[in-house]
Structures are given as C-alpha cells and as structure tokens.
Fold this sequence. Notes:
The chain is mainly α. It folds into two domains: 1-74; 91-164, no CATH class. Helix content is 64%, strand content 5%. The protein has eight helices and two strands. It has helices at residues 7-20, 23-35, 42-54, 58-70, 77-89, 93-105, 112-124, 128-140, and strands at residues 154-157, 160-163. It has a two-stranded antiparallel ribbon. It is elongated. The model is unreliable at 148-164 (pLDDT under 50).
Amino acid sequence: MNLNLDRLLYNELIQFYTDLGFVEKTCSFYHEMIDNGVLPDRMAYNSLIRAYLKERKIHESKDIVDQMKASGLVPKADTYDTMIKGLCDIKMFSAGYIWYREMVANRFFSSVNVARELLTGLKEDGKLQEVQVMSSEMNVQGLDYFSAKKKNRIYGFFGFLCLF
C-alpha cells in the first residue's frame, strides 16, 4: 500500500510509536518523513527527544535539539520541558538543571509539574545550591513550585508572564 503521508500523520505515527517505546520505528518514520520532503516540526522533534530519553540515549536527544535549531526551529518551553522531564525520569537531575538554565536564559519557564520534579530530584541529590537558585528565581516571579494549587503552565516571553 502506497500512502502519501503529510506532516500531521507523520507526527501522529512518530508520537504513537514513541508512546509505545518503539524507538527504531519512531526514527524510521522520522527519516521517512524527511526523505519524502516533509519537514519535521516541533512536535516531531519533541517526540524523538522523548523516545531517545526513554532509552537513556542522552547524546542522541541533544543531537535532535541541535538538528531542530539547525533547521531554524527555536526550542520553546515544551521542548525544554521534554528534555528536563525525560532527564528527571532517568534520574539525571543535574543534566536536567543544565537544560533548565538554558530555558530560563531564553526567557521560558517550566511547567509546574516538571519544575517540581526537577527541584525534588535536585534536593534528593543534595544539589542544594541549585535548588536555592531555582527557588529564588521562582519566588521573584511570584511562583511557588511546591504548592499543589499551582497547575498552570507558565511561559515567559521578553520578561512578561502569561498564564494559561
């Protein structure tokens, strides 16, 4: 059967196989997408990042972010959250903090759940200076990431915060 897939269908297939944990199939559809002249978007890249991190392939996930940047797509909060969450899931909290620092430098803020998970992991790892810096930054923005009442995604853009 010869199907002409568009970006939406490729994204759905890539995300589907990522969710199932089939990294090879995920990568296969990603490469097929490119070979057929369909440019990957942020959703495809984020799914690939998740797939690689599930397999503990840290360098490959970073390479995907680099490919994303090289293609002209700028990582936004969702991409950084994907990296940070994936690194937290495999207990690489210090690496997650490095991505968090880049995220903040680019004026984005993590989702509450991801930030809470990173803070908790850093605290458990004894990285108290990082916890203090991160907590101070959140307090300046008027946020308490350990409050269970905060469930909104928080984005920063040029110094302004928009709550969604």
